[in-house]
Amino acid sequence: MGKKAIMLGNEAIARGAYEAGVKVSAAYPGTPSTEISEALVQYKDELYAEWSPNEKVATEVAIGASMAGARAMACMKHVGLNVASDPLYTASYMGVTGGLVLVVADDPGLYSSQNEQDTRMVARAAHVPVLEPSDSGEAKEFMKLAFDYSEKYDRPFILRTTTRLAHSQSTVELEDRTEHALIPYEKNIPKRVMMPAMAKARHAVIEEKMAELAKDACTLPVNRVEMRDTKIGVITSGIPYQYVREALPDASVLKLGMVHPLPEQTIRDFAAQVETLYVVEELDPVIETQVRAMGIDCKGKEIFTLLGEYSANMLREAVLGEKVETKAPAQVPNRPPILCPGCPHRSVYYVLKKLGIHAAGDIGCYTLGAVAPLGVVDSTICMGASISSMHGIEKAAGKEFIRDWVAVIGDSTFLHTGVNSLMNMVYNKASGTVIILDNSTTGMTGHQDHAATGLTLQKEPTYAVNIPDLCRALGVKHVQEINAFDLVTLEQAIKEANASDEIHVIITKTPCVLLDKRKKPVYVSLSDKCKKCGMCLKPGCPAISKQADGTVRIDDTMCTGCGLCEQLCKFSAIEKVGE
Amino acid sequence: MSETKSIMIVGVGGQGTLLTSRILGGLAVENGYDVKISEVHGMSQRGGSVVTYVRYGKEVAEPIVEEGQADVIIAFERLEALRYRHFLKKDGVLIANDWRIDPMPVIIGAAEYPENILEDLEKEVTVYSIDATEEAKKLGNSKVSNLVVLGMAARHMDFTKEQWYSVIEHTVPPKTIEVNKAAFDAGYGA
């Protein structure tokens, strides 16, 4: 018996990778997958792990490592798989040398994402098998199995998780690492050069491999039949398995650890033994559709929702008709996520709002610039899309139309996929203003390093990309760095940039307020000088609130001393204290 | 104990709900229970309403706590206590930090912060409250208000003070052990 520990799903995945003998891991941060790479750092003597600039690069690094004969992995959130889908579809044709696993984290309920897409759909399209654990213990075990199966069946595997699994802690039994020596490299053009003639042959091979795996799926231990009362039978997987056990403890369950390809004979046998068959799966009816295609009657999405997360109460109501009587929720004001007190983005958005500017937005904390009272961000699509979508707006509506537009993008997002977009603007003779909100980190996901921070995943010093020089190298003539809290210079620069017919890049270079943990002098509001004008409330700082008498109060536990409100107060009613 | 205990920790992103749930979860693990903790990371953490769940018992399946199931709610802010009060069991206990943080709709005047939240809640459920942020300020670090509230909650749970100390020592950053223990004491003795 190994030692037991309580771990996040993501930590357990890292542990599983370690025990499986992984040699190379690459990833771009993305909630809810980020902690996997961070947890791999503790095993740095045994394995190499990196932050790559995006998920396509990360996946290709992992493919290369597999070609070199190592067990390799890449980790990403569901939308990251879209970026990685180009290598994924063809890596599927190539198969593997060392075991190759992509960990992909879906986000039912959209805790921190722009959509609710279901990775199992992508996996089916790419002919890539998928394992899906139900708790941290299984997450670790399934990681190890994924590598074994990957090598046995010559398929890259996906380990699919969801936010609830990734960010829940449960018990894990720790075991030792098994080292896997590099599989000696052999040149194999038909397997690895995916030009038409070779790919045509490989397509036939992977169809065979998937058929073989589907057949074996009926005996693989990851799929498990739990026979109890036969009135209700449930096919389920992942976190919904826990809700089924909680709500329907007497029901028989076919728990699928591998959700693609499905074990057809096991499903037929199980369905034949139960009176009413339910398929319980969050998001798309991936299992249900295939069960119905087998000619098996079942209940699924006509009683369960396509949206969000499931729960035990939801199942009790849908399956048993038991409505859980609870008190009605209190009618209270919402508390949406907001930019932190002292966030440099707030200062930039204040200026943009003052100038009546529309922002083509991007993915990061600064997406919160769409929320009241700022309301500056007009669109958010995907990583890098701010710059290219503004370019499209200009090409459709003309130079004059975008005089009151800017694209806003963070430093990490710019390096992820924004660079191509800016190159495209220059190449295609665009005009327009791009603001790179450079806070020297990947903020939203919890402060990860990237190619311009000068530190690796392991915090080792490395070359830091110079973002202004990079923009100049792309052909941008007007590149200016400004402190985000220098309101006067910033306003002037934006006005000039938007009046120009050339591309301007403004880099607001101010570190994320959460990076600097030193205690700084805070500000107080002097009620005798306050004229109740409300100027300091305009940027929507959560540390400042209006009192009953109309004067403002600054919460000294929240104030970080950024000084934005002091700059805005015309009556010297806001003062620094504690210097 | 055969029955599963369900605890919710609610507050505003940045108030230390994560650390608190890990201390609580760690304590249950050290006492031999099966434990599940469910956390919130990412965008929802940025100043928004945040809830984490801790469930422990002989065998725990579901990692979340649902409406009407919480034995204890630990709330780091009054409005958040009110927001989640329907998750409490009939005989559940609410431990609250008597502290106000205005949400953005209140700051911009689009909504009003309800008055007398804790007084009204006391009419429905058992409430223990403390001005934990003030207590934490007295200790020189307002960030440890979460441990003050946890200290108060600890008095209504079945673990010894020494057990709490031990898990605090294992969970919080080493430099902050003393101030966190002092904060715990402030709540425990209140």
Index terms:
heterodimer; A: 579 residues; alpha/beta; Rossmann fold; B: 190 residues; Pyruvate-ferredoxin Oxidoreductase, domain 3; 6-stranded mixed sheet; 8 helices; 6 strands; 37% helix
Description:
The complex is a heterodimer of chains A (579) and B (190). Chain A has 579 residues and is of the alpha/beta class. Chain A contains 20 helices and 23 strands. Chain A has four domains: 4-216, 3-Layer(aba) Sandwich (Rossmann fold), CATH 3.40.50.970; 224-320, Rossmann fold; 344-509, Rossmann fold (3-Layer(aba) Sandwich), CATH 3.40.50.970; 522-577, Alpha-Beta Plaits. Chain B has 190 residues and is an alpha/beta fold. Chain B has a single domain (5-188), classed as Pyruvate-ferredoxin Oxidoreductase, domain 3, CATH 3.40.920. Chain B is built from eight helices and six strands, in the order E-H-E-E-E-H-E-H-H-E-H-H-H-H. Chain B has helices spanning 17-30, 78-83, 104-107, 117-122, 132-138, 145-154, 161-171, 177-188, and strands at 5-12, 34-38, 49-57, 70-75, 88-97, 126-130. The model of chain B has no long low-confidence stretch (mean pLDDT 93). Strand 8 of chain A pairs antiparallel with strand 2 of chain B, so a sheet runs across the interface.
CATH hierarchy, class of chain B: Alpha Beta
Morphology of chain A:
globular
Largest interface: A-B, 58 and 55 residues
Mean pLDDT of chain B: 93
Distance between the termini of chain B: 28 Å
Structural class per helix/strand content of chain B? alpha/beta
Largest sheet of chain B: 6 strands, mixed
**The CATH superfamily title of chain B:** Pyruvate-ferredoxin oxidoreductase, PFOR, domain III
The assembly state of the depicted protein chains is: heterodimer
